[in-house]
Amino acid sequence: MAGVGFELKKVFKDNSSLLTTMKGYSVTAVVTEGPMVLTVLLLFLLRFLMRKAGASYRDQEIFLFMITYVMIFSLIFSNTVLMFSDRFISDCIYKNELDKILPSFWGILFFLLVLGGGAALVYLLTLPVSLPFRAAALLQFSSMLALWVQIAFLSAVKQYLRILAGFVAGAVLALVVSVGLLHAGISPLMSVMWGAAAGFFLMMVFLLTQLLRCYPQGDFQLFSFFPALDEYKILIATGFFMALGLFAHNFVVWTGRYANRVFPTGVYCSRYDVPAFFAAFTILPMLVQFVVSLEVNFCVKNRYYFSTILRGGRLLDIRAAKKDMEKTLFREIAHMMEIQILFTILSVTFLARLLSWFGLDPDMVSIFRILCFGYLLYGFFKTLTILLLYFDDRTGACASAALFDLLSILFTFLSLGLELSVWGIGFWAAGAAASLFALLRLRWYVKTLEYHVFCRQPLFTDDDARFWERLEHRLRQSEEAFPKRKEKTNRHEPKKTP
User: Is 256 left (phi over 0), alpha (psi -120 to 50) or beta?
Assistant: First the structure.
């Protein structure tokens, strides 16, 4: 969530007592991870309702399969534009051009729904399911596409509690609708599918109302964000690679010998996906620590360094500010990793045993232990990539994300020939290699920061290379000319005789 670190400074600024520290961590955990945890809890409750209603194992499997696909692919589609939209929003706020933000939201959402919703519809048509099932799944997917984008736009203006309130309201409605449909005699599968669809739709509508309250309306232009693509189009690729990297190893495993085939075109692998699901939750302390400690402390030093430059500070002062910023940066990274390594060891030792009591077989427990360290390295890599974007090293961030994707696919594919108990080793190896690359890139970039700040900035702009700006200009001209042509045509049409 963009900018939450700045908001947390208000919590920590008065004192550093234990109570203040606990309050800061609690606020961070709620506003950053609350929606995700709440959504997972909702899905568990819906699955519980299906069991209590006597749903067959087949129907429960279909529900989990469809919800999993909705979550994964809506995140991949939306995350492709989220890094770009975050940067666009930040620039608009900095330039005091708030009237451009809401039109860009409508434009981004329009293209996401056309491309993502169209792809989802084509895929749903390949499944041997009923029309109401397809409609519920498509509504879920479209709502989730909008939700991810809305969260980015609302978090930019620090509306964290409103985001959480929207998820709470949607979860409650999903349960109420599901129970109501079950009592009305609807099948358990269709009841929870439409309950989840109603809940996600309410979340979307609730966040949309908050969005309309936070930003001015502006002119309705679907192409208003096009000019920014000329400068930040690489963030589109970075966002796609970051989202794909989180699930690429699952996709490869779905082609393996232990895959579960729900439909001819619908597969997953429970013996790998279940351990991966629980292992992914073990990096929550790292995500919270990144926001609380690294963003709060590092951002202060980062802002002071660039303020020293912009206010005409002496070279000696600039170098001192840079040294202080660099020291704080790597100190906080080390502190974050110390906490996460401790939590990962505890998870491997105790949580793995607990999961074995709840039904995971020895191979799944072994995969869970390996993936705990794999997600540790993935979280480290993701943190370093975000820090590269803090310094505006867009090329380095994109290269890191692409490298992780490539290695994750390659190493996971090679690991399929090994025993099932070590299948997570490919994801772990990819995280280790990508983290090393991103760390070396970050150290090099910080070491040569003066060169990038003072010597790499463009002196002139190439108007011929601004393809998206010229395209937006032509589309806007066509849009403005259409009413005039229509009015001119109507004026020259002969009047009909009665």
Answer: beta
445 Cβ contact list (under 8 Å, min separation 6): 388, 391, 393, 396, 452
DSSP structural state of residue 284:
H
Asked if residue 170 lies in contact with residue 143, where contact means CB atoms within 8 angstroms, the answer is no
> Measuring CA to CA, which residue among 155, 154, 130, 141 is closest to residue 74?
141
User: What are the φ/ψ torsions at residue 358 (nearest 5 degrees)?
Assistant: -90, 10
Q: Please give the structure tokens belonging to residue 165.
A: 């309130």
Residues facing 268 on adjacent strands: 260
Percent of the chain with pLDDT over 90: 33
| Rounded average pLDDT over 246-262 | 91
For residue 416, the one-letter residue type is L
What mean pLDDT, rounded, does the chain reach?
83
Cβ neighbours, 10 Å, residue 316: 8
pTM across the whole model: 0.83
Main-chain dihedrals φ then ψ at residue 262, nearest 5 degrees: -75, -45
d(CA 351, CA 420): 20
- The number of CA neighbours under 13 Å toward the Cβ of 3 is 15
| Identity at 244, one-letter amino acid code | L
In whole angstroms, how large is the CA radius of gyration of the chain?
A: 25
Burial label, 249 (beta-carbon count in 10 A; 0-12, 13-18, 19+): buried
Using CA atoms, how far apart are residues 86 and 155, in angstroms rounded to an integer? 9
Distance set, CA 497 to CA 343, 488, 494 (Å): 84, 20, 9
User: How many whole angstroms from its chain centre is CA 257?
Assistant: 30
Cβ(232)–Cβ(88) below 8 Å = yes
Q: In 3-state terms, what secondary structure has residue 264?
A: coil
Q: Which helix (H) or strand (E) holds 455?
A: none
Chain centre distance of CA 67: 17
Q: What is the pLDDT of residues 62-72, one digit of tens each?
A: 998 898 899 89
> What is the C-alpha to C-alpha distance for residues 126 and 479, in angstroms, rounded to an integer?
37
Helix axes 226-253, 425-447, angle to 10 degrees: 150
Ramachandran region of residue 25, left (φ > 0), alpha (ψ -120 to 50) or beta?
alpha
Residue 108: which H helix or E strand, with range?
A: helix 101-112
- Asked if 31 contacts 164 with a C-beta cutoff of 8 angstroms, the reply is yes
Q: Where are the domains of the chain?
A: 1-224, 271-456
Contact between residue 322 and residue 301 where contact means Cβ atoms under 8 Å apart: no
Give which of 106, 254, 129 is closest to 193, Cα–Cα.
Answer: 129
